[in-house]
């Protein structure tokens, strides 16, 4: 199922006198090809859940359109859309077994019990919990409960699967495992899936396409790697990457970009104030390099090492430069110099915070 989101807007009117209306989603436009796994990514309150609720039919848009293939579903009732939804705080029915929980949506559709059981078992197999069918939710681990919630969303054989932070209740290891699982399930079923998360690593690791949002407004849409390599603005650059991108205050003068008094790159733009973003992996150690960083300490991580540094123009407390572990650094140096890989350096207008291209 192809999903087309056109000028989608949701404004929650103000409830009390004096409080402003909330523009939860503003003029959103996204084309999602059939069978894709799309990640909605952004900080808390940026409109991710609201978008999902509008796709599911639980919330109606203030304006704009939603199409599933060529059908306009904007005003279609939720139960007629053929969507499976796993909520941010998914709730299983505590008094029901796993089987009953998974079968529940089918019982509501008055499907015969034998057929319901068979379909529930199929869905359970897909998420690999078929051995747990007679247990109650309180007899399951968090990850297993999560899978029951996903199986329950899959059992109706939805055209569209909507997952709202489905991994938020899991510990780090289970999160990792379950996100791979979701990717596998999505590949196996080919169901067009929208996956909400505020965790950029999670989104980068499993999504075909990522939609980065801020305050209800889409900032960038694209493949995870291409957004990482080519961010539209300071917000997007900052949001993607662990450790995060380094940001310096700088200026362009006479076709070169300066951080402090050091010229670090060519910049074919008019003179202006800028933010200079340098990815942690964008530094090359060189005794005569362009940029001097004050060394705070060095973290050795096996494959690589991180020079944790300071710089007066950095907008963050520390600057992180990741280099291969076999690069020999000058011992006990208070400062080290680095060259910058040009494709790891981004310039943003200091006022608009938009990327200079
Ligand atoms: N029913 C509502 N009435 C009024 N405002 C709402 C309502 N639901 C959401 N909002 C507001 O709309 C904005 C977007 O909320 P939404 O739940 O979509 O954010 P989110 O991106 O899912 O955040 P989180 O990561 O915290 O789940 C927020 O400012 C929120 O306070
Ligand atoms: Mg939410």
Task: Walk me through what this model shows.
- With 357 residues, the chain is α+β, with helices and mostly antiparallel strands.
- The chain has 2 domains: 3-238, P-loop containing nucleotide triphosphate hydrolases (Rossmann fold); 245-349, no CATH class.
- The protein has 8 helices and 20 strands.
- The strands form 4 sheets. A 6-stranded mixed beta sheet has the order 6-7-8-3-9-10, with helices on both faces.
- Strand 16 and strand 17 form a beta hairpin.
- Helix 3 packs across helix 4 (142-154).
- The radius of gyration is 24 Å and the shape is globular.
- The model has no long low-confidence stretch (mean pLDDT 94).
- Bound molecules: adenosine-5'-triphosphate and magnesium ion.
List the helices and strands and how they pair.
Layout: E1 3-12, E2 22-32, E3 37-41, H1 48-56, E4 63-68, E5 71-72, E6 83-86, H2 98-108, H3 113-126, H4 142-154, E7 160-164, H5 172-189, E8 192-197, H6 200-206, E9 209-214, E10 217-222, H7 224-229, H8 234-239, E11 246-253, E12 256-259, E13 262-266, E14 272-278, E15 283-285, E16 291-300, E17 304-310, E18 319-324, E19 335-340, E20 345-349
Parallel strand pairs: 3-8, 3-9, 6-7, 7-8
Antiparallel strand pairs: 1-2, 1-4, 4-5, 9-10, 11-12, 11-14, 12-13, 14-20, 15-19, 16-17, 16-19, 17-18
